[in-house]
Design brief:
291 residues; alpha+beta; D-Maltodextrin-Binding Protein, domain 2; Alpha-Beta Plaits; 5-stranded mixed sheet; 26% helix; binds adenosine-5'-triphosphate; binds zinc ion
Length: 291
Amino acid sequence: MSQRLRIALQKSGRLADKSLELVESAGLRVVKGANELLYRIENAPIDVLRVRDDDIPTFVADGVADFGIVGLNVLAERSSEGERAPEEVMRLGFGRCALKIAAPESFRYEGPHSLDGVRIATSYPGVLRRFLDEHGVGAEIVKMRGAVEVAPRLKLSQVVCDLVSTGATLEANGLAAVETVLESEAVLIRGRRALDPELQRNAESFVDRVGGVVASRGAKYVMMNAPRSALPQISAILPGAGAPTVTPLAGRDDAVAVHAVCQESVFWETLERLKGAGASAILVLPIEKMM
Ligand code: ATP
Ligand code: ZN
């Protein structure tokens, strides 16, 4: 029997639902069995390990899992510890947040040098240390496992370095973000075992499928008729499109049909500009799959 590919996903938490959805969108049918720790994929030799996000880089690096989905923040912290870090395969476009320095209003922040000699509480000591070193700043890092935002009130630190998406938690604690240390989103990571000849085909197909889902999100197929003379202008308006496909229209020498895959959002304003350039019968279609 050939080996099964193992993918580590967060069991519960901010990345859990979207990670599983991504796997399902890649055409993998997840069987949620009695075993809470392991889901099987029905239509491919793949198992899903359901674990805490902090364990994912270690599992992937140690070959317990072949792939994982984890926040770039967690991966970066692991890499900063100088441990064997798994390879980042691609960014996945969800779980966006940023690791930021946040300070009380009374703190005067004029740039990284304002942190010289300051105590900073964080759950990301490695990433923060790298940032401080890059800016030649000597600060004291207070490592906390959670609830970092309360540290200034408890006089454990003057400022914090914490994950932020909306900033509401900071605000509720009288803090405001003053500096971005790391922009983060969910990433697909790969371990070395995925490159073994026995698993390689299965692994490549998984990466291709996930890549297809990520690429097709937000992408649109745009079709229109246009005067031949307007082609350069129309190509320039189409957002994130490569060279469009141009085909003749029956019985008309002056006009063509233009088809293009747009990687970026197509807004009403874009359609108005296309119309202004002479395009007609403009259609925007969703793309289900792309490879
Ligand atoms: P676990 O129980 O798996 O250890 P956790 O509590 O450590 O979970 P979550 O809060 O579920 O982790 O966050 C998982 C990831 O979601 C973070 O590492 C980060 O990449 C991302 N994320 C997105 N937005 C935010 C946010 N506002 N705050 C914290 N993390 C966020
Ligand atoms: Zn965690």
